[in-house]
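Onboarding guide, step 5: your first structure request.
Type a short instruction followed by the sequence, for example:

Predict the 3D structure of this protein.
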Amino acid sequence: MKQINKRVSQLSDTKLMLSEYHLCNSCLQRLFVAKLGSTLLKRLVTERPQKKLVKCYICKNFFSELDTYVKKILDASSGFEFSSFLVGAVLKPSVLDKDDQVRSKFQLKGIDSVKTDITRELGRRLRRKTKARVEFISPDVTFTVNFRKETYEVSAKPVFLAGRYTKSKRGIPQRQNSCEKCRGRGCNSCHFHGISSFDSVEGKIAKFLYWKFGSLQIKMTWIGGEDNSSLVLGNGRPFFVKLINPKKRKPKLVKKVLAAGITINNLKIIGSIPKRVIRFKSNIKLQISTEKEIQTSKLKRIRNLEKNSISIYENSGKENKKNVYVIKYKKRSKHSFTISMVADGGLPLKRFVEGRNVIPNISDIIDNHCKCEQFDFNNIIVR
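The system replies with structure tokens like these:
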């Protein structure tokens, strides 16, 4: 009997308190079901006078319009592939303030906020429409409804790729210049790609991935680099890609993609780009010219570099060491020769030949100023 009297008293008190504010059924359910229980709450909803033209004091009748918002979210996300999602919302400060005011005045502790309730209900309805699951940690896509500006944004989780490329044509730069107007951020001039064109290795790979994944931007991570005039042969240079806001997540990928002088090999989706430094060796062929006539006896000194280390000094004073594992030379003329070598990745080849802050270097070893005219990569071996 005491419990019943307490409930009746709570109902009476709540009616009195609610006479000050008009609340929709959704806000009533959220705020008072824990205090009154579902039975008394239904009674309160049934008995209170209906005010059809009066909007909810807190949410302004958002809940009665949620199906419209769901449709607009689905329209905005058209073309996106996802099996999990999360919903976010931006509400007007006045809505949040009024919700806090009512919860504080009625001493409603441990009650979800109106923002939490709106996003949860949107999630329920989207789950029924899409058959995807709600995921809080790492969803495939995040929908953000801005109730202040009436905008709808879809943000897809990045997709990461690993692959290799070979370059069979000279004159193709490795990296693509950023768009001059937006400096890589993306704008109308570059169609929001952030790059100036598609005439580099990066550009050709990006163009294929834009089409395949429906992404507008990518971020490349290179394993080493080469000159515009260099060839990249053998199994190719490894690279990693971060696809930003891709529409497709698991398109079918073939083992080889041809792209005008570039071949993309073994492209595959991975969980993330490795954070550790990728150590590798390069099998390189260098074309070298000399200022003076080559003396064969001095050229033989190059063999002493085999299985030794090279010291590279930077302007900052830092010293790096790279190992040479195999090195061979071949004289081509009185003023030219070639070197074939296997060395640690990251050895600055032109400086190694010409002698700029690299010890030992080819110019000093043969006592003849040398110039690296060209270098190609026959193979790249990841450790």
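Each response can be followed by summary notes, for example: The two ends are 78 Å apart (CA to CA).
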